[in-house]
Amino acid sequence: SFRADTSTILDYDTTYLNLLGDGADLTWKKGPSFCQSYQLEDLGFGSVNNLVQDLNNSIADMDSPLWRALLYRQHVYVRGDTDLTACQDVPCRREWVCTLTAITSKEYAAC
């Protein structure tokens, strides 16, 4: 959703189609929205900036709910439980933070 008077994106939904079944139930399903997943008010600059800072501040917390949400949303409902053991180290998470904060490849390399 979008707020036209401020040009703020309020939220977005994730939909998915289960292609692993027998094909009898090919209907799009709605997953949790971005704001629901990260407990955000909206997707304005301040909210997203705070989210990235919170991810950075919890980079070493392997039980962080924010990191769990980010890693889970990478694989929207892949065959049952998603393997959340991926990216359970600081270097991998640092790379994510760099990806989210760097605008240019030079900034990414310096991160």
Structural write-up:
The chain is mostly helical. Helices cover 41% and strands 9% of the residues. It has helices spanning 34-38, 45-57, 65-73, 90-101, 105-110, and strands at residues 2-3, 8-9, 15-17, 28-30. A two-stranded antiparallel ribbon has the order 1-2. The protein is globular. The mean pLDDT is 87.
Describe this structure in a few short sentences:
It contains 5 helices and 4 strands; from the N terminus they run E-E-E-E-H-H-H-H-H. With 111 residues, it is mainly α.
N-to-C SSE string, H for helix and E for strand = EEEEHHHHH
Question: Which residues form runs of ≥5 with pLDDT under 50?
Answer: none
Structural class label: mainly alpha
Shape: globular
Number of distinct helices: 5
**How many strands in all?**
4
Please specify the SSE layout and strand pairing.
Elements: E1 2-3, E2 8-9, E3 15-17, E4 28-30, H1 34-38, H2 45-57, H3 65-73, H4 90-101, H5 105-110
Antiparallel strand pairs: 1-2, 3-4
List keywords for this structure.
single chain, 111 residues, two-stranded antiparallel sheet, 4 strands, 41% helix
